Amino acid sequence: MDASSGADPRDVGDADTPARAQATNVVGSSSLGSHQSGPPQRSPSSSSINKAAHRQSFAENLRNMPPSPRHRHPSLTQAAVQDLMNHPPSGSKHTNPRFAGRDWRDIAIGELTSPDDIRWIDMDSSVEEATIALLKSKTNVVLIREDASSTTAISTFDYSDLNAYLLVVVGLSRPDGEQLQLFNRIMSTAQQGGRIALREIQPICRQDPIVNVVSTSNLAHAIEILGSGIHRVLVTGASGSVVGVLSQLHMVDFFWNEGVNFPTIDRLYPVLLRDLAIGTHKIISVNSDAPLSDALILMNDEGLTSIAVVDNGQNVVGNISSKDVRHLTTTSSAPLLNDSCMHFISVILNERGVEKGQDTLPVFYVNPYSTLAHTVAKLVATRSHRMWVVESASPSPSAPATPLMGPQTHVSGAPPSNQAPPSPVPTVAVPASAMAGARISGKLSGVVSLTDILNMFAKFSGLHPSDPGEQRARRRRSSSSSVRPSLESSRASIDVRR
């Protein structure tokens, strides 16, 4: 249940042993492709089966991967979550000798990035292999190259692309006449357990441009791009080879931890969101009782990476992001598509709290009287890409709402300017009114994204980022017409130099 733009706010740890599995056990299996309902089945443990006769499933391969050596967020009680919301962790108050006395606008992009952030996959690799690589990526994206000898990215694969692929496999996409043959071929191959290469699914992937920036460019250049709504830039060396990835979250994290070195940025943190007039009041949300498939389709059609889940009183009770589709890559997870969004959220919380020891309650909202520091601290602490803005809670039914309400656009007022297989699915869905979020959140009234924050930082520093609305509109157009006329070239690549 993430609030990420490209994906889950929490990082997925690395695993050094690649998992090789049959395509029948990935998203493209026949059981998931037919979109049938029925109780999910627990996979047998490796100790209770004849390994010589048993072919491991995609889920089992992931389960047997070495545990992540990376840091995990500790489990939080409800009281601890409430305390985090009221008193989020403060940024660093000590000057960093690397940046002290420097104008942040002159810092080189290469000082913030590392080759360790890059995960490669070849264009003719399978979707299954790309998904495994994505689960192990620190930056929630896999760079696609023509072959193993290349160091140039010709496309990318992220959780939004995985969502688009999933919707085709299960027959939930709406292809037009031109797309029908392609969609049917992918769906048929997946249902028969055939191998599907990344090259074959490129037409259904979102058409985000690849933006290349040389490592010697400064952060002023980077923030103008990221503050305009581009989620990430690829950092290249003098030879043109990719040497790092700089994302919006990475940039906001830098400003939060190093803001004490930069007075122009640091003085904004105590200001209230209301006074900054940041974010937007037009939000697309989905009702908690709507099927999960509705949320996934809506995110794909609108080019969104996350969506708010609300009850009938428009109170925020959860959040679903494109990265959550990683819970749907096994055949046993197929019934979740027909279950409610609230049920899906309860599955994710059950996994985090019981199996993985992560946060047992979500922290994904602020209010107009939250300071920018409070908002950024929560974004950084939860690795989120959005915070939903809420007002005081509205009356809401004590039981699940009926009749079901589908996806909707909620407008309030005028705009101010690891990797582990899913847990066993609970047998009883949790009603929205029973979730903690219904008691401690409030009525959805807006959203603040990383794009909004970086755009504001840029403008207050005298820079001129483009209007993020243009990029958002372009992303929606790209998602609504996912098939390109030809495959003679991959996604547009923009090489920005200064």
Textual characterization of the structure:
The chain has 498 residues and is α/β, with parallel strands linked by helices. The chain is 31% helix and 14% strand. The chain contains 17 helices and 14 strands. It has helices at 30-33, 58-63, 78-86, 127-135, 159-169, 177-191, 198-201, 219-226, 248-258, 263-266, 273-276, 292-302, 341-356, 372-382, 436-440, 450-460, 468-480; strands at 120-122, 141-145, 155-158, 210-214, 232-236, 242-247, 282-287, 306-310, 316-321, 365-366, 386-391, 408-411, 443-449, 493-496. The strands form four sheets. It has a four-stranded mixed β-sheet with strand order 6-5-4-14. Strand 7 (282-287), helix 12 and strand 8 (306-310) form a beta-alpha-beta unit. Helix 5 packs across helix 12 (292-302), helix 8 (219-226) packs across helix 16 and helix 9 (248-258) crosses helix 14 (372-382). It is globular and about 60 Å long. The two termini are 39 Å apart.
Question: Layout of SSEs?
Answer:
Blueprint: H1 30-33, H2 58-63, H3 78-86, E1 120-122, H4 127-135, E2 141-145, E3 155-158, H5 159-169, H6 177-191, H7 198-201, E4 210-214, H8 219-226, E5 232-236, E6 242-247, H9 248-258, H10 263-266, H11 273-276, E7 282-287, H12 292-302, E8 306-310, E9 316-321, H13 341-356, E10 365-366, H14 372-382, E11 386-391, E12 408-411, H15 436-440, E13 443-449, H16 450-460, H17 468-480, E14 493-496
Parallel strand pairs: 1-2, 4-5, 4-14, 7-8, 10-11
Antiparallel strand pairs: 2-3, 5-6, 7-12, 8-9, 11-13
Helix pairs in contact: 5-12, 8-16, 9-14, 9-16
Distinctive features:
498 residues, cytoplasm, CBS_dom_sf, 17 helices, Protein SDS23, protein serine/threonine phosphatase inhibitor activity, alpha/beta, globular
